[in-house]
Amino acid sequence: MVGERSAQIPAAPAIPATPDAQARRRNADLGPTFGAGIVTALVGFTSSFAVVIAGLRAVGATERQAASGLLVLSVLMGVTGIVFSVRHRMPISIAWSTPGAALLVSVGAGRAHAGHGGTSGYREALGAFAVAGLLTVVTGFSRRLTSWIARIPAPISAAMLAGVIAPICLESAQASVRLPRLALPAVAVWVILGRFAKRWAVPASLATAFGGLALDPATRGHLTGGLLPTLTATTPRFDIGTLISLALPLYLVTMASQNLAGIAVMRGYGYEPPIREVLMGTGAATTLGAPFGGIAINFAAITAALAASPDAHRDPNRRWIAAATAGALYVLLGLGAAAATALLIAAPPLLIEGVAGLALLPALGGALTTALNDTRYREAATAAFVTTASGITVAGIGAAFWGLTVGLGLLGTTQLRTKTTTPGNVAHQRNAASPHSTTE
């Protein structure tokens, strides 16, 4: 009886959580979100800033100008990332164009051989940055231009990107042989962590290289400059050859490898980003930052997944906090641009490019896979890759432009040949050649 009576006693009503308790629960849930934002910024910055510095130096930037470029890029992508994320409550991550920085290394070498290096070459590169930003703004206004860029076959654009990256990746092997004391420890750390903590492999290898440089008496003797970066403005110069060989490829490689890829990542996690607004905003910021050495900013592609995935927060409507956190940390990391630039510039140039090559190896593997996977595009993609990787300069125009041109041209002739040799066309040609044909 007692058991039956107790079973009939209604349960006490649940006491609703107080507003303070609900707030504490929400804030507790944000721990992993802030962590994801911190990881996004650290990985995005440390894994590729050596590529940015190497690219700026390749087109003639001084140490102060390179530090200024790194600072303005960090601030611009941090501020725009915060604005877009807060405004739209989406994890819209903004990054600098790592493929664009890699393009500078290859184009800079070609321009130097052609007599366009030094101060003049740097000013011409700044003009190309500004024009690439304006092209991105125009793309944001024009749906037709966006669709045109999207219609460039992915294998061809990937082959051009692979051709830009491959020579830098080769420097990792060169550095291991020619600078074994500095390069091999960094490579070993990259290999080991690549098996257990892939996300941190490149930052750790960079830290290892930095450690070796800091302990090297020769390096310490060449460290100059202050610890805080300063913005250094330089008047851009607009040269038609540089605009064709650098501005156009920079625009195309940034659109195809960064913006379109970043949009795909966002959509893969269920978001529909404000594409036109982001393109116009990042394009305008790129143009404004060009006189200070800013290369290009765009949708983040690889690091976007860190802030947009369920690991950042189980509620998709709260993940924007991760992207905003990453933006704030990018601004803070930019304050270390002068020290990072000074340390890298004091190092042998081959070591800088070797570390940059390690950072770009995954991108090279992905680009080659995309370029060569489809047999219909393989021949044209291979031609685009070889032409771009050759580093040629023709009529003052760099290899990236010619690689894209050769790839698209060969693809067009291949498709035309395929159409003329279809079974129906072949049968028609045989009937036309037959002695029983009534056609004279």
Automatic annotation (TrEMBL):
<feature type="transmembrane region" description="Helical">
    <location>
        <begin position="351"/>
        <end position="372"/>
    </location>
</feature>
<protein>
    <submittedName>
        <fullName>Benzoate/H(+) symporter BenE family transporter</fullName>
    </submittedName>
</protein>
<keyword id="KW-0472">Membrane</keyword>
<feature type="transmembrane region" description="Helical">
    <location>
        <begin position="68"/>
        <end position="86"/>
    </location>
</feature>
<feature type="compositionally biased region" description="Low complexity">
    <location>
        <begin position="7"/>
        <end position="21"/>
    </location>
</feature>
<feature type="transmembrane region" description="Helical">
    <location>
        <begin position="384"/>
        <end position="404"/>
    </location>
</feature>
<feature type="transmembrane region" description="Helical">
    <location>
        <begin position="34"/>
        <end position="56"/>
    </location>
</feature>
<keyword id="KW-0812">Transmembrane</keyword>
<dbReference type="Pfam" id="PF03594">
    <property type="entry name" value="BenE"/>
</dbReference>
<dbReference type="InterPro" id="IPR004711">
    <property type="entry name" value="Benzoate_Transporter"/>
</dbReference>
<feature type="transmembrane region" description="Helical">
    <location>
        <begin position="125"/>
        <end position="142"/>
    </location>
</feature>
<keyword id="KW-1133">Transmembrane helix</keyword>
<feature type="region of interest" description="Disordered">
    <location>
        <begin position="1"/>
        <end position="23"/>
    </location>
</feature>
<feature type="transmembrane region" description="Helical">
    <location>
        <begin position="320"/>
        <end position="345"/>
    </location>
</feature>
<feature type="compositionally biased region" description="Polar residues">
    <location>
        <begin position="431"/>
        <end position="440"/>
    </location>
</feature>
<feature type="region of interest" description="Disordered">
    <location>
        <begin position="420"/>
        <end position="440"/>
    </location>
</feature>
<feature type="transmembrane region" description="Helical">
    <location>
        <begin position="92"/>
        <end position="113"/>
    </location>
</feature>
<feature type="transmembrane region" description="Helical">
    <location>
        <begin position="288"/>
        <end position="308"/>
    </location>
</feature>
